[in-house]
Each structure stands twice: as structure tokens, then as C-alpha cells.
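Step 1: inspect the first sequence and its C-alpha cells.
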Amino acid sequence: MGETDLARLRHGLTADSVTSVSMRPPLVLAGVARRARAHDALEGPWRSCDGGEHTLLPGEVVTSGHRDGDARGYHASGFTTIAERTLGFEHLL
């Protein structure tokens, strides 16, 4: 499936894990379950690694954003709200 085909499809997923790899260049590593519906669409000409039940996919961060407020989480097949802490670790940055 080429990039043009992927652009026409509606797609999205919840990554089982996303890990920061490098600040310069900004790189991340995402673990995607092999049973995920979007898994096969993500495998392409770029490098991926076998992670057992998951495929590990590296990626470059091209843009990022931030907003204040509660976060959205996904657990046990449902979405939940993760309340914003008033005194988190942000003051250490």
C-alpha cells in the first residue's frame, strides 16, 4: 500500500507504548500490537523491528503541541479522564 492509498483511508490507533529516543533529531519508538487493525497499514518500506506480539516502529517527530487541562487515557477497552495535577513535575523543567 503506497502513501497515496494510505492518505485516502481513515486510520488511527492507540500505541501500546511510545518512547522518546532522541532530542536531535527528535525521534520516537512506538510499539504497535500485531493484532491491531491498523498494524498492516503501518508496515511499509521503513525499518521496523520484531517485538514479539508487537512491531516496533521508529519515527521522526515533525510537529508537536501542548494544551492545558485534563488528559485523555484509554484503559480496559474504554476512555477515561486523567485529571491535571496542580503540582506536577512541570516546575522542575
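Step 2: inspect the second sequence and its C-alpha cells, then contrast the two.
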Amino acid sequence: MAGCVYHPGTFSIKPGQTVKLSEVIKKAGGTINGNYFAGERSASLRRVKVMRYEKGSVVEFTLDVWKGTGGSFIIKSGDRIYVPELA
């Protein structure tokens, strides 16, 4: 987990455990939501990236956690998650 979250880092997923993207973001302390107009960092939940290694290549998913169903996206062991800043 990296990007605009309070506690970036590595989080464990136990074998057989189902973990949603929204749960991993919560484990990372949630997103940073500063005052964008005052120049403070603020997360963009409309473009969360999940990179997954499958069959010899990297597959990238761009998910809308804010208004879409991206929060219910199932995270697998080894996935890389990036929450970008508002642009």
C-alpha cells in the first residue's frame, strides 16, 4: 500500500482470507484528506491503482472507490495498491 494514505506499508493476507480494497485502505489508516485548495495533500479515490502479477505479466486495474464499486474489489496476496493525490 502506497500513496496518499496515513500508514503506507505492507499488509498480510492470510490464506483463504477475502479482503476488499476498502478494508486495506482502512488498515492503512484511511486516506489523507487535506485542504486541496490550500496546497495540502488529498487523496483521489476515483483513480486507485491495483497492480497484480498474473501469468507472467503485470495487470493494472484503475478503480473508482469514491462512487464506483472499486471498494469491493478483492485484493490478493502480492497485489500492489497505490492511492494517488488529487491532480
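Step 3: confirm your contrast with the notes below.
Residues 21-27 form the longest helix (7 residues). Strands lie at 2-3, 19-20, 48-54, 57-63, 74-75, 80-83.
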